[in-house]
Amino acid sequence: MYKPKTHIRNRFGEASPASGAVRIEEPVPAYRQGHTLPGWSDIQGLNQRRSATPREEATFLGRISTARFALIVLGLGVLFTLYVGHVHATQQILAELEEERRENLRLHLQHNRLKGDFDQMVGPSVIYERAHALGLVTDPAPGPPVEVGE
To answer: What is the C-alpha to C-alpha distance for residues 37 and 31, in angstroms, rounded to an integer?
Structure first.
């Protein structure tokens, strides 16, 4: 009677008794016979990378290649560097703006002081004093207009 082979095996390579399949005999490695340790050729297959299972490939990192991951990390590094540079440039511009505002305020105050000095030099009280010094008198009572004949 023919019994189909099964893919369900336990950790020793034996078919599962629940499946009712025939036991497939496989050669036992030399390091499992007795007390000898495995050689390099025996464990070489254990160190090789196994292909990813469908479950591992379903994850985000399982689907992207190493080169693509490196490019993503590099791109994030470049974006972070640009952001930090932008922050420093903005802070420098803000410091310059505050300095220019202080300079503008200083110039406005200087302009107001000089304008006050000028107004004191040419104001009406100064003009009246100079006029008296030149011998001009103010007319206390204005009279009728004087007509000058021809």
So the answer is: 5
pLDDT under 50 in the chain at which residues?
none
Three-state SS across the chain?
CCCCCCCCECCCCCECHHHCCCCCCCCCCHHHCCCCCCCHHHHHHHHCCCCCCHHHHCCHHHHCCHHHHHHHHHHHHHHHHHHHHHHHHHHHHHHHHHHHHHHHHHHHHHHHHHHHHHHHHHCHHHHHHHHHHCCCCCCCCCCCCCCCCC
Is residue 49 within 8 A of residue 38, CB to CB? The reply is no
Q: What is the pLDDT of residues 74-109, one digit of tens each?
A: 999 999 999 999 999 999 999 999 999 999 999 999
Strand partners, 15: 9
Give the predicted TM-score (pTM) of the model. Answer: 0.44
- Non-local CB neighbours of 56 within 8 Å, separated by 6+ positions: 62
**Cα 58 versus chain centre, distance:** 31
